[in-house]
Amino acid sequence: MIVVSSCLAGLAVRYNESHCLDTRIRQLIDEGKAISVCPELLGGFSTPREPAEMIGGDGMDVLDGTARVVTKSGEDVTEGYVKGAYLTLKKVKELHATAVVLKEYSPSCGSTWIYNGEFKGKKIKGNGVTAALLGRNGIKVISEERLAEGLNKLI
């Protein structure tokens, strides 16, 4: 069993009520080989919601308390992102998932790249809060951008 970002499964859970359907992931869900999770919804956020980015570092820094997640208007929403990350970790452990496929660039799910905190579309190397927490707990995290390379190994 693998866990995947809900937006990749075609669910309109992103901040702007959109999705990022990946037909391979949707097929895995339809075949019962994957379960979808949205850390941001688990953290108490609604759809739609104001975009958020990390200030002062990446997901590792947020978990260490040295960076925070803020909305475009400046509201600190760090607590919700951390809560969603821990609830996602709990679900992954309950399912005994072998890997988690996450949506790149998200302040929750980015596993290689995130936005730089200026809300201007600039990306930097780093990971989201959920990706960081899963990695710290030995869970294999894969970006949807690298899914084609390892899909057969996951299932």
From TrEMBL:
Highest taxon listed in the record's lineage: Bacteria
One Pfam family, short name: 2-thiour_desulf
Family annotation (InterPro entries): 2-thiour_desulf
PANTHER family named in the record: HYPOTHETICAL CYTOSOLIC PROTEIN (PTHR30087:SF1), INNER MEMBRANE PROTEIN (PTHR30087)
The protein, known as: DUF523 domain-containing protein
Gene designation: ybbK
